[in-house]
Amino acid sequence: MTEHDLPLVGIPACVIAEGGGGDFHKVGEKYIMAVAGAAHCMPLLIPALGDWYDPRELAQRLDGLLLTGSPSNVEPHHYNGTASRPGTHHDPVRDATTLPLIRAALELGVPLFAICRGHQELNVALGGTLHQNVHEEDGKDDHRSDQTKPYDDRYRERHAIRITPGGVLQRLAGGATEVMVNSLHAQAIDRVADRLAVEAVSPDGVVEAVTVRDAQAFALSVQWHPEHPIALEWPLSQAMFRSFGDAARARRAGRSASGAGGGRTEAA
User: I want to staple 224 with a disulfide (CB 3.0 to 4.6 A). Which of 16, 63, 176, 181 is the partner?
Assistant: First the structure.
């Protein structure tokens, strides 16, 4: 497969206000390189333009959808949550882009891989709710990034997850019932959306991975960060991105066979 035939994986951007005026649509390089290198797909950055897009038309053009982590949190009105504390970082245009795009991608069978904020977005898009500060919940640990460590060291193994027997994640983990992951989040899934199956939990009960029960293609979501170069050395990280890439290649091949190759939808 040449670079001209690589599946197109859409990666929605965050809107970041930079000093000096103006906003920037940004995606962390680690996500771009994981899609390119570990999934062997063509990353396609999607500006956060909200309802400027028809989400179904956009999803039709994609062979895969990757949802990234972010410094921002999903606005709580999307899941009937209480108002956020003053100073909480939100990105309403990203919410307006990703939430309908998730639903459209699942409807059309577009392979989906969600990470951290993306994990939370998937749950909200399908009707679930979030803990806004999970470390303040009874019995829950502090899962936030350790700011005393150098940046890269924050992505090293931090705690175990218990993997659901017989699930998708256990297959990708080579049959393991427990693996170590990193942890860099304050929000977490509270009520799991009905369409989601829990694939792994942390020792304190935080939902660490889910799949979509009725998905037509790969649809996996994790709370930790497998995309960082350190985490990409782990066998499970490699297996997840490889399986996501394989699903995107299968969609690409099917679209090409039906005359919709090259990312273009068929004429009506």
Answer: 181
